[in-house]
Amino acid sequence: MIKLSNAALLLDACPLDGEWSHALSGKKVPVLNAATGEHIADVPFMGQAETQRAINAAEIAQKVWKTQTAANRAKILHSWVSLIQENSEDLARLITLEGGKPLAEARGEITYAASFITWFAEEAKRVDGVLLQPTAPDQRFIVSKQPVGVCAAITPWNFPAAMITRKVAPALAAGCAIIVKPAEQTPLTALALAKLAEMAGLPAGLLQVITGDAKEIGGELCANATVRKLSFTGSTQTGRLLMAQCAPTIKKLSLELGGNAPVIVFDDADLDLAVKGIMASKFRNSGQTCVCANRIYVQSGIYQKLSDALVNAVEALKVGNGMEDGVTQGPLINAKAIEKVELHIQDAVEKGASVLTGGQRHATGGNFFSPTVIANVTQEMRFAREETFGPVAPLFKFDSDEEVVNYANDTEFGLAAYIFTENAKRQWQIPEALEYGMVGVNTGLISNEVAPFGGIKQSGLGREGSRFGIDEYLEMKYVCVKL
Ligand code: ADP
User: Fold this and answer.
1) Average of pLDDT values for 221-227?
2) Ligand 1, from 238, 255, 286: best to mutate by most atoms within 8 Å of Cβ?
3) Which residues lie closer than 8 Å to 161 by C-beta, 6 or more apart?
4) 121-132: per-residue pLDDT in tens?
5) Residue spans per domain, the chain
6) Where is the Aldehyde dehydrogenase domain (predicted)?
7) CATH 3.40.309.10 corresponds to the domain 261-441
């Protein structure tokens, strides 16, 4: 069992229609410790009926919430942040236990998660309309913004807190109600966050969490006409399915899907900066984020130096249970994730790549994999096409700028890209040529609450965070007045 300082944050029921509820069937589903496989808790296994109940409750609650002033909504959101901060150690422990990331990273995630709530509490106050110039003297054209209504969020396990607050905060700030279906691996963090929102004074029905049967819950959230918007973060495959399921009711959609992030290191790069950037981007959360470097293109003049320095840095990483001091690499999320990493490495080695360090499961056992660097990777290998989502840095060699931009863009994904160069011209020209929603120049860390997060092509639709993020939860209304 887990021990938390605040026992009220370990929940086995879902906040639904103003009550902490169990599944109608009484069924529960276990939550496992990602590092040890131990059983840590049970959560309700809910389905369509409970989802319908949540949607009905959300509809009623939202009608009142939207009439509140933005300042009143902000006050509750700020109280939520204070409670998250007070309970941050418990929340971080929950993230590490169920998701596996090292405790230091989990603490960072709580700060990151809270930053979206603070940000959108303030943005709520800046949702303004405009008066347009009329086309005749006896007309007035008013454009205002109104909350979308009842929203749904389906979230992944790799950021069990931040992927929820990045959706819930702008929804609540805009005057919407939202129903969250967290990933089956990490429901405890979601339930704890909802408990803190309730303690902060958020009225019932505005933030409901449903755990259980993903297909049934997702099916109802997509099919139900009362739900006006779906925000999803997860795989492109599931995103495609949900988009199709939302088509009959023409829902507004935000989709944050897969990436296949290239990192380009030019000959003129600052080597230390490049290695630091690659380590941050590639090995955070053991390579399991959608903006993690997936392909590392290194210009021939710096290739050897970069690969030597990277191998040194990777060999200094410490693999283990994220609850232990000094651990920098936790487990992968499940056996399937390990198998995919192995498949990508095997495919590359068969086609002529060589393992410089790592390359196999870690001695710790379970779902731990040794941080790996692979050299001589080419465009013909799986690493070039598919998201590996694991602690493997594949090094590709290139010569010209044009060649590397072509390689980088040769994918159906378009989320994040990174370049390392000291040349000012390249710092401008290469990001412009890259078909990506976000580009880091001389940095591997680009996500924050201030900037618009999101991708193009099959990496998704819409942007989260930033002053643009609240628009995803607002509809424009035009009123034409004839005087
Ligand atoms: P991953 O393979 O990394 O778990 P997914 O895209 O499958 O990525 O999962 C992201 C989220 O989508 C999770 O909350 C998961 O439960 C949910 N999900 C997966 N399949 C479906 C589905 N058919 N309907 C609704 N939600 C789904």
Assistant:
1) 98
2) 238
3) 91, 95, 109, 110, 113, 189, 190, 193
4) 999 999 999 999
5) 7-257+459-482, 261-441
6) 24-479
7) yes
